[in-house]
Amino acid sequence: MSVKAFKLVSAVEREMLMGDKNHINIECIECCGKNLYIGTNDCFIYHFLLDERISTAGKITFAATKQLHKYLGLKKPVSELKAASALTRLLVLCDNTITLVNMMNLEPVPTGARIKGAVTFTLNENPVSGDPFCVEVCIISVKRRTIQMFMVFEDRVQIVKEVFTPEQPCAVAVDGYYLCLALTTQYIILNYNTGISQDLFPYCSDEKRPIVKRIGRQEFLLAGPGGLGMFATVDGISQRAPVHWSENVIGAALCFPYVVALDDEFITVHSMLDQQQKQTLPFKEGHILQDFEGKVIVATNKGVYILVPLPLEKQIQDLLASHRVEEALVLAKGARRNIPKEKFQVMYKRILQQAGFIQFAQLQFLEAKELFR
Where does the CNH domain lie (predicted)? Predict the structure, then answer.
């Protein structure tokens, strides 16, 4: 049974990005606060400001205002973008080279600092250096079976560590000293400080695109065999039951308490609290799904959309209205971490009372008594 957890809202229409140039495709996106950056296949970066608007009826829309665009001077696609807001820098991967550009004017840093030989890269969101004016970057190197760790400052880069892997890595996520890696035939956790590694489970990267995503401190979400979304900690164990995805998931994102997944036809929403599928949104030709500071963004080759979460209280009331008491109570308990304590206690008491009346009307007197109590 479905819950309306998200609404899909258009953010950047194709005309704003490409006008009548049909050959332009969106390759990657990055969002930092109100700043949205788009990298394209013809080596351009576009910068938009996203303005969220709420109508009197409570409907949310987004107005994107184009700030500027910049050609990087190559005939290659911009394959990845990551913002380092503390440094006001955007890290741009194009033609196996990561360049540092200013977040506001998109000009390269005057020193020309760059990282060469990167296949893909990610930032360490739980950094170990303790320096607020540096970001830690992990790259999969063009050198075979090699991962490199860098410290990136405002105008310079410094290599920290080079780590060799048992097989060729194809995807990576970082938490502190821990790397969660998709290799050719399996996922592993590797501590790059001690060199100790731990096998997680087998996976064939030739058949499907691996997904490795950090979802919290010392915890990752992975695309497992049999269409399962698997959770793994840095200790190599799973503290949550898996969610059942389709076999061909392209991307995944977290917006607590939901895991959102994209395949070639749909966006699916599963609850982390009871692992049930709660919502399915038709979405054709999607190829990017990412979350940025709680904002979930999806994109096709031609347009960018935002998945706007409905307020949890509204979702709970909808569940109660359709007499789905257990699900409403599970969601209400899960909402505790998103709502201030005093407000939560008032809300939770009211929900227990409503749930009690529903059970009472269904002649489930013992259950109703517990809820009223």
Answer: 23-296
The residue type of 211 is I
Whether 211 contacts 205, CB under 8 Å: no
Return the ∠ at Cα 38 (arms to 24 and 137), rounded to 5°.
Answer: 130
* C-alpha angle 251-261-213 in degrees, rounded to nearest 5: 50
Given the structure tokens 């969660």, which residue do they identify?
A: 180
| Topology (CATH level 3) of domain 6-309 | Methylamine Dehydrogenase; Chain H (2.130.10)
DSSP β-ladder status, 114-116 and 118-123 = unpaired
**CA 42/CA 73 separation, integer angstroms:** 9
Q: Residue 82 is which amino acid?
A: K
109: DSSP letter: P
Closest CA to 215 of 127, 126, 278, 85: 126
In tens, the pLDDT along 303-332 reads 999 999 888 788 888 878 888 888 888 888
Query: Where do the domains of the chain lie?
Result: 6-309, 318-372
CA 149 to chain centre: 21
State residue 366's pLDDT score: 86
